[in-house]
Specification:
The protein is mainly alpha-helical. About 55% of the residues lie in helices and about 5% in strands. Helix 4 packs parallel to helix 13, helix 9 packs antiparallel against helix 12 and helix 10 crosses helix 11. It binds tryptophanyl-5'AMP.
């Protein structure tokens, strides 16, 4: 039987936020016992927009610390940084030769990131989804747990895998399945319920960081945008802010939307925000404490990434050799 293998990753571009946690990392923790797991820190993706080298190094180690603090077990899951394994770039080049520009032109994330300055954007930013496909296919991952914003990139990964199989006339790559699960697959900004919670939002008040202390979390929820309706209801079209807070509360407490709606329907925003912020503070407290301890231990984090790179390389080198042989390279 084929191994069910998970691969997922986060960019080391700053403090992780509640969206990264509820949309992705919390799902990883929940499934890590059921799959063989590889969790990557995608530093090659990070440099598709300019990065300060010192900050990138620090952020890579901090992201490894966050994975462990959130509950990833480094004894059973492989934690590694992408740039250590040459196969990611090699496979991205091969896959790039069979990815039509028309497919890349559809990617909404590129359109959002490049904005009006498309012609000034780098090739790396444009080819970003091909590298992501390479991350997944290099390890023959069968399942990819991500937040909803990555769905289009996963569909493209499946298309690219199919293009490779057709070109070389064999069912070499299995098409990976996205795992987009939980009540908060798209966590929205606390300042605007129609915008995704994101690292790049100018306002610190738009997001909760995993490193925020209790007072900061309470303050951010207090200032979170509300609306003029009575009670608290789940109504994505008309009440995006209330809906977002309900989704966050459900994901943090493990309750269903229905249970939460019953619990909070007669509350006002102020009472609900206090309930929510207390639950988030309680849940994130131990994560933040462990995170702070681990980020102080750079030697441990470095050794963890050394070991992760060794384990990832064992799989990647075998697969890239096979892929090169299929392509016809002399290896
Ligand atoms: P990145 O670094 O933007 O985000 C990491 C993970 O967090 C999820 N996420 C969210 N989920 C819910 N609500 C939000 N507001 C929110 N913001 C972020 C993302 O969906 C993602 O799962 N391209 C990827 C990284 C990547 C990758 C891969 C992922 C590179 N190679 C291979 C899976 C497999 C990205 O930029 O994620």
């Amino acid at each position: 039987m084929m191994t069910s293998r998970v691969l997922s990753g986060v960019q080391p571009t700053g403090n992780l936020h509640l969206g990264n946690y509820l949309g992705a990392i919390k799902q990883w923790v929940d499934i890590q016992g059921s799959y063989e797991c590889l969790f990557c820190i995608v530093d090659l993706h990070a440099i598709t927009v300019p990065q300060d080298p010192k900050y990138l190094t620090e952020s890579t180690l901090d992201t490894a610390a966050a994975y462990i603090a959130c509950g990833i077990d480094p004894e059973t899951s492989v934690i590694f940084n992408q740039s250590r394994i040459a196969g990611h770039c090699e496979l991205a080049w091969i896959l790039g030769t069979m990815t039509p520009l028309g497919w890349l032109n559809r990617m909404t994330q590129f359109k959002e990131k490049a904005g009006k300055h498309k012609d000034q954007s780098g090739l790396g930013l444009y080819g970003y989804p091909v590298l992501m496909a390479a991350d997944i296919l290099l390890y023959h991952a069968t399942h990819v747990p991500v937040g909803e914003d990555q769905k289009q990139h996963l569909e493209l990964t499946r298309d690219i895998a199919g293009a490779f199989n057709r070109q070389y006339d064999r069912e070499y790559f299995t098409l990976p399945e996205p795992l987009i699960a939980g009540p908060a697959t798209r966590v929205m900004s606390l300042r605007d319920g129609t915008k995704k919670m994101s690292k790049s939002d100018e306002s610190e008040y738009s997001r909760i960081h995993l490193s925020d202390d209790s007072d900061t979390i309470a303050k951010k929820f207090k200032k979170a945008k509300s609306d003029m309706h009575e009670g608290i209801t789940h109504d994505p079209d008309n009440r995006p802010e209330a809906t977002n807070l309900i989704n966050i509360y459900a994901a943090i407490t493990g309750k269903t939307h229905e249970q939460v709606c019953q619990e909070v329907e007669s509350m006002g925003f102020s009472q609900f925000k206090t309930l929510l912020s207390d639950a988030v503070i309680e849940h994130l407290g131990p994560i933040t404490t462990t995170y702070r301890q681990l980020t102080d231990d750079k030697a441990y984090l470095q050794s963890l990434l050394d070991k992760g790179a060794e384990n990832a390389a064992a799989l990647a080198e075998k697969n890239i050799k096979q892929i090169k042989e299929i392509v016809g390279f002399v290896v």
